[in-house]
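Worked Example 4.2. Consider the chain below.
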Amino acid sequence: MMDPVHKNQNSDGYKPAVIPNAFKVIHGRKEAGSMKSLINQDRIVDRRAESRLEKRIGSMFIRVSDMKKAVEWYSRVFDLPYNNDYLEDRLSTVYTLHLDETEVLLDSNGEAAPSPQPLMFIRTDDIRSTLQFFKDNDIKIHKEVLENNIIIFEDPDGNRLMAIQM
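Applying the procedure from the previous section yields the following structure tokens:
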């Protein structure tokens, strides 16, 4: 049986009472402390590093120059209803399009500057039908890459969007 003086030592008799100098150099610490305090301090740092952000997009903003025109266009593209009375009587500077898992916020606050890269991609189950819909509705097509099931198209402000069959 071990005597009480040696009960906290490991099998080869070593018991760190102070953080070894190597740990102080690695962690940039000058003050001495116990191994327990070093471990607890690292846990606190880890907790502060958590962003707490959800792994999904809540909303995205698209700048537009003409709200009425943008609402009509995006509603047609996404096959969404809109309230024409709302557009005529209480035109807002932000209009929300409710999609299945996110929202697209059309924003007319400030100057609209077209995005040269697609702002988002939207899935389709039939790229050729989508292409025909775009042509039938005079939607400007920037690029067709049908062998890869991709269409890059533009909204009325020149923002590029992408349709992909996956």
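The mean pLDDT is 79. The helical segments are 21-27, 35-48, 67-77, 84-89, 127-136. Compare this with Example 4.1 before moving on.
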